[in-house]
Structure formats: C-alpha cells, structure tokens
Amino acid sequence: MSRLYAVASTSATGPGGAGGDTGPAAPTDPASDLASFFDDLVRCETRLYNAVGDKLRAEHGIVTSQYEGLRFVRDHPECRVADIATAFAIGIGAASKIIDRFEANGWAARLPNPADRRSSLISLTADGATLVAEAEQTFHGHLAELITTAIGAEQVSAVGAALATLRQALEDARVGVPVG
Fold first, then answer.
1. Over the stretch 123-160, which tens digit does the pLDDT of each residue have?
2. pLDDT attached to residue 73
3. What pLDDT score was predicted for residue 44?
4. Helix crossing, 64-75 with 126-143: angle to 10°?
5. What value does the CA radius of gyration of the chain take, rounded to a whole number of Å?
C-alpha cells in the first residue's frame, strides 16, 4: 500500500481501524503524497490497460489501443487524423499509422474531405462497427470485474470526477501534447 493510502486508512483506533488508540496520524509530506498518487495512478492504469488488452486480444483479436481508436472513430463520425492525434495526445504520424492499420484490416475507410482536400474524413466500415460493438461489451464487462470488485460505485464516481477535473486542467494547459 502506498504511503498516501496507508496514512488515509489510519483511524483513531489504529491502523486499518483495529487496535488501541495510536494518537493522531503522522503529518504527511505533500511531495511524498504526490509521488505516491502518481505511482498508484500509473500502476493502476498500466495494469488495467494490460488486463483489458489481454481480454480483448483473446476474445476479439485486438488490443486496447485498437479498441480505443475504433471507439473514437465510431463516436466521432467523419473525424480527421488530426482529431485522433489531439484526442489521444499523439503525433499526426502515429495517428495516421493507426488509421492505415484500420484500413488494412477493413475496419475503417478514408473519405475525401470536401472542406479540405489535404485531409481525409475517417469512418468505420461495417466490419469495424461490428468489431467495436462486440469488443465494447467485453471492455465494459472486464472493467466492471476488475474495478468494481475492488472499489464501489461511489468511489468510482468520486475518483472519476477527480481524474476528469485533472485531465481537463492538463488538456486546457496543453500539458503533455507531443511536439510536431
């Protein structure tokens, strides 16, 4: 358990709520708390991303990044490669390669952009739409299995709201946006 959460779980009745009175919790170090928060956030993301990817690969032959890209194209019909790059904080070249692979697999098609001949509009094919719809059931089911068995729906909502606020602040400040 990270220091941040170990301190938070100590109550007046002792660590974890058991035992005698141990007095007030030790003061926390804000820098250490932030480092623990970062470690926990990154390790949770990595483990969830990998576990969901394993499940999607086993059941649908795709990985998490492919599912996310397909879902984005489905939810943003006629998006551009630049829209994908912005949404995922990746370079234009990387986003274009993703769409190249989707096209090669028959999951997406590039259509002419009547407003800008230099770019294309991306749409899912029928096969791509079917794949993302089927994979979505697996994605949601596995996330529920992994997350809600560890923390309740109320905690999911609270953590989700905090992370959404942090994400919005980072996006507004253009933090972590690739150059080029």
1. 999 999 999 999 999 999 999 999 999 999 999 999 99
2. 98
3. 97
4. 120
5. 21
- Are the C-beta atoms of 133 and 101 separated by less than 8 Å? no
How buried is 99 (Cβ within 10 angstroms: 0-12 exposed, 13-18 middle, 19+ buried)?
buried
Identify whether the C-beta of residue 64 lies closer than 8 Å to the C-beta of residue 53. Answer: yes
User: Cβ of 55: how many Cβ atoms within 10 Å?
Assistant: 19
Position 131, amino acid? L
The hierarchical CATH code for the domain 32-154 is 1.10.10.10
Exposed e or buried b per residue across 58-75, where buried means at least 16 C-beta atoms within 10 angstroms of its C-beta:
eebebebebbbbbbbbbe
The number of CA neighbours under 13 Å toward the Cβ of 96 is: 6
Q: Between helices 81-88 and 64-75, what is the axis angle to 10°?
A: 120
* CB burial of residue 149 (10 Å; 0-12, 13-18, 19+): exposed
The identity of residue 64, as a single letter, is T
Mind listing the pLDDT tens digit for each residue in 2-36? 433 333 443 334 444 444 455 556 667 888 999 99
